[in-house]
Amino acid sequence: MWTDIRPAVEMPRLFERGGDVISFAGGLPDLDVLPLDTISAQLSRLVRLGGKLALQYTTPHVAKALVPAINDLMAREGTTTPAEHLVPTGGSQMGLMALGLGIGVPGETVLCQTPAYPGAAAAFRTAGLTLHPAPEDADGLDPAGLRETVLRLRAAGRTVRLLYCNPTFQNPTGATLSVARRHELLAAARELDLLVVEDNPYGLLSFDGKTTTALHALDPDRVVYLGTFSKVFAPGLRCGWIAAPGELAQALRRTTEVMALSPSALAQAALAAFHTRAGWTDLIDAYRTSYRERCGLMADALEAELGTDGPWQWQRPNGGFYIWLRHRDGVDTSRFAGAAAEHGVSFVPGGHFGIDGEHADGLRLCFSHVPKKRIAEGVSRLAKALSAPAASLEPVAARSAAEPLEGAAR
């Protein structure tokens, strides 16, 4: 059976909430900024006037009316793409699965920027691919190390064609690869004949309104770009896209058609209608303002509670959803999950972002959805949990709170 040769792949529990728990786990957007009255009126009009089309099956293409909305978003990072190069998805997670099934070959190796988004690792493994960490240095993905790694793996008989990365406000670290390093990385990819997968859910969510040129803008024939409306509009619509070179786009379109038969005509029409009437600028600015404030509250609270010269290290990000903490002494942070639960707070242990056990000394905190008035309280609870003496912490296997369960992982 298929399930016998591909072991079950699980992802961390992120979106479960209850009682008085303050969750720093799941990467939920702040939907308080959405103009719900406007969206409600637009949806009502859409269903009333065009419901027979919007609620019907459609073709595995991005709707013509949605193409300008996608290119508007991509243009803010210096790139656009022809309509025929766009493949609709039910969000980036579906796009990752489509890439693994439509482009990857079972048994071949995918190089992954680590710490890695767990959903990408799960998708690639479910497609039968093998993962290997992409080399990094203090400036991020390391082109020289990439050359050495690829040549070594190929000499050992492994097929390496894909490099997966999340280069802007990375999940979970919040780091952004410089434009200079992006050029160097793509030069190495061309030399090694690697296809680069650019996963970009957070690229427009800088706190200062500035953007970084997308990898796709620098080499659209070598970069497959994953976009999503989940973070710049709302995840409940489950709508995203892949921008890929022509032949690859055709292969991916065939794969997504098998996976979903049809994209949501209603979701595409709703997004297109919103963009036509309002554009993206005001909404994206509102998201940026919300996340800038929440990030500041969390970072200030961390400094107050944990100090800056103790065992925990972190950097304030310039955008995105997350703050990444690491323990100076390499302690496995999953050992703190039980203590955190007892104090009424949750986080994602760093081991979920590793490929082969690495990064267990990290933990991810998400600030994007936590009520502002509860961020300092949540950090205070977290600090108490992280201060628990090591002798009082149960082994990782004994803590159900640290076990990976099904759930989305953004």
Question: Can you characterise this structure?
Answer:
With 410 residues, the chain is an alpha/beta fold. The protein has 2 domains: 10-27 and 283-402, Aspartate Aminotransferase, domain 1 (Alpha-Beta Complex), CATH 3.90.1150.10; 38-278, 3-Layer(aba) Sandwich (Aspartate Aminotransferase, domain 2). The chain has 13 helices and 15 strands. The protein has helices at 2-5, 36-54, 67-75, 92-102, 118-126, 143-155, 179-192, 215-218, 246-260, 265-278, 281-306, 337-342, 372-386; strands at 22-23, 86-89, 109-112, 130-133, 136-137, 140-141, 160-165, 195-199, 223-228, 240-243, 312-313, 322-327, 345-346, 348-349, 362-366. A 7-stranded mixed sheet has the order 2-10-9-8-7-3-4, with helices on both faces. Strands 11-12-15-14 form a 4-stranded antiparallel sheet, covered by helices on one side. Helix 8 links the parallel strand 8 (195-199) and strand 9 (223-228). Helix 2 packs across helix 10, helix 4 (92-102) packs parallel to helix 5 (118-126) and helix 4 crosses helix 9. It starts with a helix and ends in a 24-residue tail after the last helix.
